[in-house]
Write a structure and sequence with these properties.
The chain is an alpha/beta fold and about 325 residues long. It has eleven helices and 15 strands. The chain folds into two domains: about 220 residues, Rossmann fold; about 70 residues, Alpha-Beta Plaits (2-Layer Sandwich). The structure holds adenosine-5'-diphosphate (ADP).
């Protein structure tokens, strides 16, 4: 079988509710083995997109595929390979985590009991609920509920996990726990999760898709998005006169700008580059070609996705 590189693809996928256009001609591309943050303010159309992908509602226009299968006509086959966590999962409160998992797992397996039990144990451990497995869900925190929901979605070992706002309603500890679980699942499956919280995207995503007023405004790797919008900065802390190095660096086409400042007797050089690959390979070496310079620190400036997001959302408004 030819490996499918693209897990989700949509072509001009659109959804109207009456006269209201909740989703306008969406073209998505989600590659395999990635964590994709589907980001947008409330009402942007994220849940609508997820419902369309899962075949829970029909498009007004356009089409889409998951693993090459049509989201309208082949959604039963799609669902066999997809795990889904709804925005506010409901549980039978008197049941324990293990009972809930047992209930879910038996939808998928007809195998022997001991295999089902082993799968449940393994999945509960993966989400860090093994020590609470026999407690009723009634006493679970928000974060524990979300992790149980993820365990449910994961128990059939799906090739794609779709999570609708998995961390939005949680306190910081709960959010961190949920994001850690997503990190752990990275090696098993592709994860597509919606959120209106930028920080979540920046913490776990490889790629980001930004939606606003039902329209796609950006998609790509977090890195690409930051570099396309703001340029890429490297920061060096130096000892010595940096003016020669500055001139030298400015002669390269892949370097956009070199700025020098001073702080506590040290020289701070900020370099904006156009090409990260080249910068990684050559930048430090070029700085060090001036033998009188001593490099004390070399780092990539971590830029905030929030600035990019706000500029995109405000620009599109
Ligand atoms: P998000 O998940 O990004 O918060 P939604 O997809 O839930 O956004 O909603 C997008 C827009 O579509 C919102 O303006 C919402 O009010 C509207 N909408 C969603 N579902 C329905 C529906 N069943 N009927 C009418 N309008 C809806």
């Amino acid at each position: 079988m030819v490996p499918v590189q693209s897990v989700i693809q949509t072509q001009n996928l659109s959804k109207n509710y009456g006269n209201f256009q909740a989703l306008k001609s969406l073209n998505l591309n989600v590659p395999a083995n990635s964590i994709v943050g589907f980001l947008g303010p409330n009402g942007a159309g994220k849940s609508t997109t997820i419902k369309l992908l899962l075949g829970l509602t029909k498009p007004t226009a356009g089409s889409g595929t998951i693993f090459g299968m049509d989201i309208v006509n082949e959604n039963q086959d799609i669902r066999r390979r997809v795990g889904y966590l709804a925005q506010n999962p409901n549980f039978y409160e008197h049941m324990t985590a293990r009972q809930i998992m047992d209930f879910t797992a038996r939808f998928f397996f007809r195998g022997p009991d001991n295999l089902i039990r082993a799968r449940i144990d393994k999945t509960l451990k993966l989400v860090g609920l093994d020590d609470k497995a026999d407690r009723p869900v009634r006493g679970f925190s928000g974060g524990e509920r979300q992790r149980l929901g993820i365990a449910q979605a994961q128990v059939n070992y799906p090739d794609l996990l779709i999570l609708d706002e998995p961390a939005a309603a949680l306190d910081p500890q709960g959010r961190r726990d949920v994001l850690e679980v997503m990190e752990k699942l990275r090696k098993h499956t592709t994860i597509f999760f919606s959120t209106h919280i930028l920080d979540d995207v920046q913490r776990v995503s490889d790629r980001v898709i930004i939606l606003n007023h039902g329209e796609l405004i950006a998609q790509g790797s977090v890195e690409e998005l930051l570099s396309a919008s703001l340029g890429l900065n490297y920061r060096l802390v130096l000892k010595g006169d940096a003016s020669r190095a500055q001139k030298h660096l400015q002669s390269f086409a892949w370097i956009q700008d070199v700025m020098i400042g001073h702080q506590n007797g040290k020289t701070i050089m900020t370099i904006v580059v156009k090409d990260v690959d080249l910068a990684e390979r050559a930048l430090l070496r070029e700085v060090l070609s001036d033998e009188n310079l001593i490099v004390l620190e070399f780092s990539r400036n971590k830029q905030n996705l929030e600035e990019v997001f706000l500029s995109l959302v405000e620009g599109a408004a």
